[in-house]
Design brief:
Layout: H1 3-7, E1 18-19, H2 30-43, H3 53-73, E2 80-83, H4 86-98, E3 106-110, H5 119-122, E4 130-134, H6 145-151, E5 156-162, H7 174-183, E6 187-191, H8 203-206, E7 210-213, E8 224-228, H9 230-233, H10 259-275, H11 283-309, E9 314-317, E10 328-333, H12 338-347, E11 350-351, E12 353-355, H13 360-365, E13 373-377, H14 384-395
Parallel strand pairs: 1-11, 3-4, 3-5, 5-6, 6-7
Antiparallel strand pairs: 2-8, 7-8, 9-10, 10-13, 12-13
Helix pairs in contact: 2-10, 3-10, 10-11, 11-14
């Protein structure tokens, strides 16, 4: 599937605007939009129940969405939870940790985190857990293993780390981090929300204990997903409805599922299956799609980074080379507040974001909080013409 063909799958691109805010949420392919519409036309708000045929179909849909998400993560379906958001799921996980730990226990948060992978664990201070920060090193904001080693101790229970910074685009070597943490006898919870659209997660290769991502950042509807390693799933005491057996992943999926959104996510996965050039949805099909996405993004990322680095009056934050970063670049224009830069570009038909994007710690460390930065973020459907329009817009008065 070439770029023109795949762009035709995403209706908002036909507006003529350059959409460069993919870190906030991806566009949905036609297949996902149709799946949501078809579901609502056929079922409305029918709930899952074994008592009638439509209800049984809802039960089957929930199982299919769990299986598809497991393929995306290279996981087993019984270890995957789906909910309204990653933030909601991580706070539910924190409630389980609060029943396990207390005074004398410690957690470590990386200095690159979105607050969805920081605030839930900071809440553990309410039960006496000590919270430490593994700061990224200025100016490029890379995490260094020596700095983590200085924080790890026999009291460490959990290390929270992102696979890629949602504000700065910094990529993290997750297998290396999890190996270091595991050797210290602690668990790792990985925020894969920003990394997932650019390189699909592989929980088997990563070696983490918990991995979360958001399907809506991967061109699906607004949903969150959480993988729990099986050895923990059977023991974690998260609050649950009384009839749900201990260890059943549905115990952390509070409330009625958004069935129409699950249907849309399956539509997205089917689009990715086609992008990967396969006839059926399998892990190899998704791996092929991920490789195709990397191929499409590489030249656009290089153009975006080099163009901003060479733009007069523009300061780029994070790595200044393509190594160790993905297609998200944070910057400021000299003498112009980030929100004004974004508004000026949007008026010219180029949509970027401005603010702190819930990335409180890294922007505090850079001295950029709370005003934040301008953020341009690409997806596999972003064209080089989109980036050219951004760079041209920055040069206009």
């Amino acid at each position: 599937m070439n770029l023109d063909t795949l762009r035709a799958h995403f209706p908002p691109l036909a507006s003529g605007r350059a959409y460069l805010d993919n870190a906030a949420g991806g566009l949905l392919p036609l297949r996902a939009i149709a799946a949501v519409t078809d579901h609502l036309m056929r079922y409305g708000a029918t709930n899952a129940t074994p008592g009638h045929a439509p209800g049984r179909e809802m039960l089957a849909l929930k199982g299919q969405a769990r299986e598809g998400t497991a393929l995306f993560l290279n996981a087993n379906p019984e270890d995957v939870a789906l909910g309204p958001s990653t933030t909601a799921l991580t706070f539910r996980l924190a409630a389980a940790f609060a029943r396990l730990w207390g005074p004398g226990d410690e957690v470590i948060l990386s200095g690159l985190e979105h607050e969805a992978n920081a605030s839930p664990w900071r809440e553990l201070a309410q039960v006496g857990v000590t919270v430490r920060v593994w700061h990224a090193r200025l100016p490029e904001m890379h995490l260094h293993p020596d700095d983590l080693a200085a924080l790890l101790s026999p009291r460490t229970r959990l290390v929270a780390v992102t696979a890629a910074s949602n504000a700065l685009g910094v990529r993290v070597d997750i297998p290396a981090v999890t190996a270091q943490v595991r050797a210290a006898g602690a668990w790792t919870v990985v925020d894969a929300v920003h990394a997932a659209p650019h390189a699909f997660p592989d929980v088997q290769a990563w070696g983490a204990d918990f991995v979360a991502f958001s399907p809506y950042k991967v061109w699906g509807p607004h949903l969150g997903a959480l993988w729990v390693a099986p050895q923990h799933r059977t023991r974690l005491p998260w609050p649950r409805l009384s009839f749900v057996p201990p260890g059943d992943i549905t115990g952390i999926e509070y409330g009625t599922p958004q069935f129409e959104l699950l249907a849309g996510w399956l539509g997205t996965l089917d689009y990715l299956r086609e992008l990967g050039g396969h006839g059926t949805l399998t892990r190899p099909a998704l791996e092929a799609a991920s490789a195709r996405i990397a191929e499409l993004e590489r030249p656009v990322t290089e153009q975006l980074l080099s163009g901003l680095l060479n733009a007069p009056g523009v300061t780029v934050y994070g790595p200044h080379t393509g190594q160790g970063r993905i297609g998200t670049v944070a910057f400021r224009v000299e003498g112009e507040a980030p929100e004004l830069t974004a508004a000026r570009l949007s008026a010219a038909g180029v949509d970027v974001a401005a603010g702190h994007f819930y990335a409180v710690q890294p922007l505090k460390d850079l001295g950029l909080y709370p005003q934040g930065v301008v953020r341009a973020s690409i997806a596999h459907y972003t064209s080089q013409e989109d980036v050219e329009r951004l760079l041209e817009g920055l040069l206009r008065d």
